[in-house]
Amino acid sequence: MALEVGIVGLQSSGKSMLFAALTGAPGDVGMASIPDPRLQQLAEVVHARKVTPAAVRVVEVRGTGPELLGKLRQVDALLVVLDGFSGTRVPDDDLETLKLELLVADRDHVERRLERVGKQAKSGDAKLKRESEPPELEPLTTKPLLSIVNGPDGIDLQLEAELVEMTEEEAAEFRGGGESALGAIVRRLVETLDLITFFTAGEKDTRAWTLRRGSSAIDAAGTIHSDIARGFIRCEVVRWDDLVAAGGHAEAARAGKQRLEGKTYVVEDGDVLNVRFNV
To answer: Which domain covers residue 218, as residue numbers?
Structure first.
């Protein structure tokens, strides 16, 4: 499953512009690529016909009521957009207002759930009992929260949304070769959630994937496809820079840079995995 984040903000804060800038998509659900310069280097070495970056699933909520905010209980983190442009709002005050909205949404959710569970408790169903525990309730107030000021002291989201309409080369030239502010936002998310990136590198498709730090090779296999995890045999592992320096998988193996690992191997950031499986 892709990393998933929710965008929230008070009215006219610029949250729709952030969604457009991140995804370039209409509607309120889209995908945002995670920039990683290592991916292209790997693709060039293996002569990949397709290059697929890791991605974040982005969900925008058009409002702040408890019912609307409740749609974000499955996300991994929240991006809070604060108005720093209009001059009529104080970003820090708006942040506190939004935190209160999240708290109210959690309170209402807990009260509704406990009321329902209480009515059915006589059945003795263990699942109903678990529903009253915090992990099952998925409180919004415990999710990582990253605030983004839309304005001179933060990010010009209108400009970023307009740059999405340009080619990557044109946008980079407009920025003077500097990094996209959106790239910095995505990187903050990755750091906040303590994620690493691993790669699969083949001629057909070279791809980046995100994984929780400390996860195993079997977890990585499941990230790629559940069937691969189910039929896991072993995986070939090589560091991305060793693969690039060697010039290919066969060359890296001959140089002793590639090794075999089992399902309990803890994947490290920058690992290139080739999972052997049988289903």
So the answer is: 214-277
Cα-to-chain-centroid distance, residue 171: 23
Question: Is residue 49 one of the residues assigned to a domain?
Answer: no
Of the candidates 197, 200, 198, the residue with the CA atom closest to the CA atom of residue 277: 200
* Entry pTM: 0.84
Instruction: Output the domain CATH number for residue 228.
Output: 3.10.20.30
Within a domain: residue 249? yes
DSSP letters of 123-170? G--HHHHHHTSHHHH--GGGS-EEEEEESTTSB-HHHHHHHTTS-HHH
What is the total count of domains within the chain?
2
- Same domain for 161 and 221? no
pLDDT in tens, 125-168: 666 656 555 656 788 999 999 999 999 888 989 888 888 888 87
Tokens representing residue 195 in the block? 């994620």
First to last CA, the chain: 21
* 91-137 pLDDT per residue, tens: 999 999 999 999 999 998 888 877 777 666 666 666 665 655 565 67
